[in-house]
Amino acid sequence: MAVNKVLESEDKVDITPMIDVVFLLLIYFMFLPLQQEADIGIKLPSDAPPAENLKLPSEHIVEVFPNGLILLNGAPMDSVNDRDMAKLTNTLTRLRMSSDRAGIDTVVKIQADPDSPHQRSIDVLNACAKSDITKVSFASYGS
Q1: The domain containing residue 118 runs over which residues?
Q2: Is pLDDT at 20 greater than 60 in this prediction?
């Protein structure tokens, strides 16, 4: 008889932990719809026409070196002692006229070395004024 009691106790499976898990899952899924998701502000695309082609400005870089050398888009311009800068003025005028025919703006970015004479930057600004270029900006050297 003792052998039968041992066999009967081995056949029984304790389902208490499984019932606990089922109740926990039941409670979880009952309260899940009550939670609100955070609004992350995503706007889905609508039927919008494609963007038009933007006309980018014609940008030219003038570099001013410590020895007074002026480079326009990498090409050397007038001599280091020339304050009138006729070559730079003529080249900027031709570039502006070409950009005007294409219907785009001409932008000149001056990159002056910190050790360059300030007068050379003023000479470049005067050449831009003579060429009727009004959109001129300074950029940090080497950028």
Answers
A1: 58-139
A2: yes
